[in-house]
Design brief:
heterodimer; A: 274 residues; alpha/beta; Rossmann fold; 6-stranded mixed beta sheet; 4-stranded antiparallel beta sheet; 34% helix; B: 277 residues; mainly alpha; MetI-like fold; 10 helices; 77% helix; 0% strand; binds adenosine-5'-diphosphate; binds magnesium ion
């Protein structure tokens, strides 16, 4: 388990997501903030990468770059071989805040992306029943069957987050971007959702970039973990997680796993002092 | 899988008896307090022999109302008419301007100071000008109702649109949603509760606007009736007019509150976002 440089892990040509020495500066003049500086991350197609780092180091900013919500100030981001220069439609996103629409039922919340993303948008009306069946089976796979007709306020935080995951996946995106999706949940619910996410990822084969500050979460879920420095963020270490999938909660208590988490923790605390 | 699914089938427990009594008392509250006020008022007027041109007793006000009910009804219809027309214009204009101000930073920056300035002008001061322009009658009352009720609608619609969670906007934008998509799918439904909160206030303000205009430049309406009555020192009739305005205000308010509850019930629930399970 040697530390590898990002370029060793996934070569530039084979990378599905290629974040190449990007810099991002907010604002102009004396009040500007440099959020990212020389950040490089590569993720293979179908891979699962986690990004960990101290709070405020630019993790959320990185997500915005990859999804094309913000242009980088320097460097470039390429997804599936194309340079990102606007919102990407092949992405699903979920955040710490589930942001479900309170006036819609769970089912209709999950189906929201279908009303926006082409080609589903054009087909939705004609194939409505097929799409509903799709959404139902997705909800079933995260354990929300029976809640299709409920409104978000009738769901617990964990259930809202499950629905939010379904909404991020309903249009079958190739890339799933998760920004601390489980941070607001209690420990038991969080661990339950790790399992849900892992099962979805293994079944559907999309690529995931997960931002988290929970090192056990990163180690449980990811193939590769990138540690970011304090602001301006750049990658200071990249670690492979060699344990085979599917992983169980039991695995997280095994010695190699504990050792890995410890090592990551050391990196982070060094970054926080720096 | 999770344990929390098992709650799916459980129906809500019936209200306890204590809770239902408490809610019945709450509903009866306004009526009880109103009735008590009237009783004390009546008693005070009789015991202290207050002259009826200073403060008429509720019974005298009722007598006056009953005597003049036909005339009062006619003037009330006029007031209702100018209120509703002015309010309708305010809703259309207010919603459109609110959408503009709430979705465009440039419009917000350039219009907001003007709106604040406009709202700071006492509308009573404008009515004489309206009379000069449009003559005595219905038009100044309609415009005055419009002017008073316009502002809260603009502000609330704009607030509802401007306070959209950035994450939600990001989710939609990352899917390739246009500004129009975001407005239709999320912005407008989300600002509906704000709009209805504004409508409840705005309709009563429109009523105030109409009555004010009628007391200054009109020959019909409850405001005009009250002005005439006070000119004849018919104080009970003045009070009857006041009561009619108050009752109309409460009735319209209640109507909008009902409509609000039906259309935006989701907003008045305890919505809990992301607080763990
Ligand atoms: N829209 C913005 N305008 C100005 N500064 C911002 C903006 N968004 C984030 N920042 C700044 O950029 C830095 C990184 O933010 P963020 O990416 O949210 O960090 P993280 O998600 O790792 O906590 C922070 O210092 C933050 O204050
Ligand atoms: Mg963040």
């Amino acid at each position: 388990m040697a530390t590898v440089t990002p370029t060793d892990a996934v070569s530039s040509d084979s990378a599905f997501v290629d974040i190449d020495t990007v810099g991002l500066t907010y604002g102009r003049g004396p009040s500007r903030t440099q959020a990212l500086n020389g950040t490089t991350i590569r993720v293979r197609k179908g891979g699962f990468a986690a990004v960990v780092g101290p709070s405020g180091c630019g993790k959320s900013s990185l997500m915005k770059l990859v999804t094309g919500l913000l242009p980088p100030t320097r460097g470039s981001v390429r997804v599936d071989g194309q340079t990102v220069n606007g919102p990407l439609k092949i992405v699903g996103m979920a955040f710490q805040n589930p942001t479900l629409l309170p006036w819609r039922t769970t089912l209709r919340n999950v189906m929201l992306p279908l009303e926006i993303v082409q080609p589903h948008r054009g087909r939705l009306r004609r194939n409505y029943d097929t799409y509903v069946e799709d959404a139902r089976s997705l909800l079933r796979s995260v354990g929300l069957d029976g809640f299709e007709g409920r409104h978000p306020w009738e769901l617990s935080g964990g259930m809202q987050q499950r629905a939010s995951l379904c909404r991020a996946l309903i249009h079958r995106p190739d890339l799933l971007m998760l920004d601390e999706p489980f941070a607001a949940l209690d420990a038991f619910t969080r661990e339950e959702l790790w399992g849900v996410l892992q099962a979805l990822w293994m079944a559907r084969g999309f690529t995931v970039i997960l931002v988290t500050h929970d090192l056990r979460e990163a180690a449980y879920l990811a193939e590769e973990i990138h540690v970011m420095s304090a602001r301006p963020g750049r990658i200071v270490a990249t670690r492979q997680v060699p344990m085979p999938f599917p992983r169980s909660l039991e695995d997280t208590f095994k010695p190699d796993f504990v050792e890995l988490v410890h090592e990551l923790r050391d990196h982070i605390s060094r970054e926080r002092q720096a | 899988m999770s344990k929390d699914q098992s709650t799916a089938a459980i129906d809500d427990e019936p209200e306890t008896r204590a809770a239902s009594w408490a809610s019945r008392l709450e509903n009866a509250g306004p009526w009880l307090i109103g009735l008590a006020t009237l009783v004390i008022w009546e008693a005070a007027c009789r015991l202290l022999e207050v002259p009826r041109f200073v403060l008429p007793a509720p019974s005298a006000i009722w007598d006056s109302f009953w005597t003049w009910r036909g005339v009062i009804g006619m003037h009330a219809m006029q007031t209702l008419y100018t209120t509703v027309v002015g309010f309708a214009f305010a809703v259309v204009g207010g919603v459109l301007l609110g959408i503009g101000v709430g979705t465009s930073k440039a419009l917000y920056k350039s219009l907001y100071p003007l709106l604040i300035g406009f709202n700071s002008v006492p509308k009573v001061a404008i009515v004489p000008i309206l009379v000069i322009w449009f003559g005595i009658g219905t038009v100044p009352a309609v415009i005055s109702a419009f002017l008073l009720s316009f502002f809260p609608i603009v502000v609330n619609v704009a607030t509802g649109l401007a306070t959209l969670e950035p994450e939600l906007r990001d989710v939609l934008r990352s899917l390739g949603a246009s500004r129009r998509d975001i407005l239709l799918k999320v912005g407008l439904p989300r600002s509906l509760p704000y709009l209805f909160a504004a409508l409840k206030v705005a309709i009563t303000l429109a009523l105030v606007g109409s009555v004010i205009a009628e007391t200054i430049g009109s020959n019909a309406g409850i405001g005009y009736l009250m002005l005439m009555a006070s000119g004849r020192f018919d104080v009970p009739l003045v009070f009857a007019g006041l009561f009619v305005v108050a009752i109309m205000g409460v009735a319209i308010y209640a109507m909008f509150a009902k409509l609000e509850a039906r259309l935006t019930g989701w907003a008045t629930r305890d919505v809990v976002y992301a607080t763990g399970s």
